[in-house]
Amino acid sequence: MMQREDKDKIRRNRVEFTNDLEVDGVFLDHLHAVGMLNDAMLENITCCKTRREKASKILDIIPRRGPDAFGHLYDALVESDQGFLADLLRPENENKRKREDAIRVQSARSRQRYGRQISQPSDEQQNPVLQPAGSYDMVDEPKNWDDVMNTLGDIQVQSVQDDNIRRLAFENLGHVYSNLTSPRGRAVIINNQSFRGTKLTDRFGSHLDVIKLDRLFRELNYEVVIHADLKAQEIVFKLQEESNNPMHRTSSSFILTILSHGRKGEVFGTDGDPVEIDKVQKIFSECESLLDKPKLFFIQACQGKGTDLGKIAGAGDTTEIEEKLKQFNLQPDSETADATGLDKTPSMSDILTATATVPDMVSWRNTEAGTWFISALVYSISKNAHRDELQQILTKVNNYVAKAETTKGKLKQISQVTHTLRKSFYFFPRMS
Asked: What are the CA-CA distances from residue 404 to residues 132, 147, 280 (Å)?
C-alpha cells in the first residue's frame, strides 16, 4: 500500500488535481506503461465523460496501487508537462524539475528549427570504439564507450570509505586543500547551444552535458547555477557578478564549466564574439573571497580546426573534414574562421583548467549523447571521487578520451589539463 504521508499529499491537493489535471495523452500512457493502470482500469477511466471525472477516477485508483504508485504519479505529471501539479506532491524537487524542464525546452526548440537532424542517431555516433585502457588502477574501468557516454541514469558518487582519505580531510597536513564546507561551493555552468544569426552552428546534444554536470555537482554537494546562451559580453558580466557572490567567503572551492564553440585560448559567446579563457580565469583569481582556494575550470570547446587521425594532424581541407563529419553525425565545437586566438598559460595560483582538447585541435560532440570530454569527466569523477585526487581522476579522463575513436574515419581526440594548484585536491564526497 502507498505510504500514509503520500496518500495525505494526494488528499490535500485533490481539489487542485481535479480542477487542473490533464488526463488524456502522455499522462495516462505513462501510468499504463509502468503498470500502475491495467487495461480494465484504463478502459474504466477513458469511458468517463468529462475530464474532471477522469481525474477523480485516477485519484481514487492510484493510492491503492502500491508503494511505488506515488513516485509513478509524480513522474507522469513531469513527463506530461504538468510540473505545477508535480510540485504539489514533491515541493522539494521544484527547482531541480524547473532546471531540467528548461533544458528540455531548449533542446526541443533546436529540434523544431532543424527538423530530424538530431532525432535519429546513426550506429556510428552511438557506438564509437573504446580501446583497452592503460595498466593503472582498473577499478570501475568502463567496459565500452557506451558506459562512459550514457551516464544520465547512473550518476551516483560513493562516500569516502578509506581511512587514509578521511585523515587527509580532517588533519591539517598542509598539502591537501580543505574541502568540507556544505555546500562545498558554487558550480557555475554556461551552456551556449544556440548560435542563430552567426556563422557558428548550433551545438546539438549540449543540453545532455548540462544534465550530467548538474547531477554530478549536486552529488558532490555544490550549489549549481546554470546560464544558457550568453553573448560574449554577457559571459563576462555574469562571471564578474559571480565573483562578487558572498557565498564564496564561506565556501571551500569553486567550479566553472563552459560549454561552447571555441578556438585557441578562447570560447565564443552566442553572438560569435570570443572571450579569452585567461580573462575568465583572471576574474576569479582577483576574487578575494576565493584567495588560496582551488578554482576548477572545465572548458568544453574546440581549440582550433585540426583533426586527429591517431597522429598530430593539421587542419587539412575544411570541406573534406565537414564531409567526414556528415558521414557519422559527429560535430566539432570549433568555429569556421582561422584560429587566431592567443595561446596563453595561466599564471595565477590555485587554478586548474581541463580542456576538451589540445591547442589547434577540434573536440567531438555526439548529438544524441553529449560531448566525449564531458561524458568522460562525469563518468571518471562519479566513479573515483571517493578515493582519488583530482589530477588522478583527470588522467583517467585523458585516457578515456584518447582511447575513443569514431567507427568511421577513426578520428581521435585528447583532452588536456594545466594547473597552478599548490596542494592536492579531493572532493571528499559525503563528508563534513
From this structure: 9, 12, 30
352: part of which helix (H) or strand (E)?
strand 351-355
CA R_g for the chain: 24
Q: Is 261 a catalytic site residue? A: yes
CA-CA distance, 251 to 283, in Å (whole number)? 17
47 is catalytic: no
Instruction: Determine the pLDDT at residue 144.
Output: 60
Which one from 261, 287, 386, 419 is the annotated catalytic residue? 261
The span from the first CA to the last CA of the chain, in angstroms, equals 36
Across 273-422, the runs of DSSP E, i.e. the strands, are 274-276, 295-300, 330-332, 351-355, 364-366, 370-371, 404-405, 416-419
Q: Is the pLDDT of residue 37 over 80?
A: yes
Q: Provide the phi-psi class of 81: left if phi over 0, else alpha when psi is between -120 and 50, else beta.
A: left
Kindly name the residue from 30, 207, 287, 302 that is annotated as catalytic.
Answer: 302
**Bridge partners for 262 per DSSP:** 267, 334
Assessment of whether the complete model's pTM goes beyond 0.85: no
